[in-house]
Amino acid sequence: MTGKQIGGLIIALIAIVIAYNSYFVVTPRERVVLVQMGNIVGTNYQPGLHFKKPFIQHVHEFDKRLRSLTGNIKRVLTSENKNLSVNYYVKWRINDTVQFYLSTHGTSQNAQGLLTDLIKNDLLSAFSKRTIEQAVGSQRNQILAAVQVQVNKDAKKYGMYVKDVRIMKMNLPKQVSQSVYERMRSKRQEVIKALRAQGDAAGQEIRADARRAKTEILAKAYRKAQKLKGAGDAKAAKIYAKAYQKNPSFYNFYRSLKVYRNNIGSGDLLLLRPTGQLFKYFNPSPVSPKPSASNQATSASNKP
Fold first, then answer.
1. What's the whole-number mean pLDDT along residues 140-158?
2. Strand, helix or coil at 96?
3. pLDDT over 70 for what percent of the chain?
């Protein structure tokens, strides 16, 4: 190979290296900062192919998706000066690429260190204002919401945004946890008693209303039944009166039979004198005998 060929090969290699360092590609999940001599000269690049000055300008790429950060605070003091340890996790992402680069020098390790310090300070401050019972139970969500708001205020200057803050686990000393659980149990028992008392009072009121409604319904039904019964009795009396007027002797006989049927049973034995109006059908009047022919003649002769 001659010297001329070697020189051409070197020039081609240099051209390839220059061309390779003259462009960069931005993916949809990345944020890019272009730096020249320590100064930012380009940001907010859209996904695709872009060009830069070779060897002078450098590209810093950052993932703009949500990231996770976990941590542990071994000693947290509550307002009662009692200790507990807290395991937490944070969901965060880059919100301002330029500010993030200037604050962290473009390294995720620095970013996580800054965010960890913010989370720890805010959690310690929030727990110091509350008792263990509040931190474990009723105000746990309030603590996390307040910490998230405060962390976002502090993390804004670093170009970061905190999407969520959660507590994975809280460990209490054995004696402390027992006292907390006993206190929570007693309060729950008080709530249960109050709810049961309210339920009993409501039940008594409902039962009283039901009894009153029942009494009113029965009274109305009885009044209506008496009206219907009175109307029926009046109509029946009218029918009986008409029937009596048509055949009084048969009506009297029929009524006597009903009295016999209702008052004298098949196994009853009564010793009564068959006299009086009630037993007149047991003692019919005797039939007068027909006069003989001689008597008829005598009667005829006696006539004037």
1. 90
2. coil
3. 83
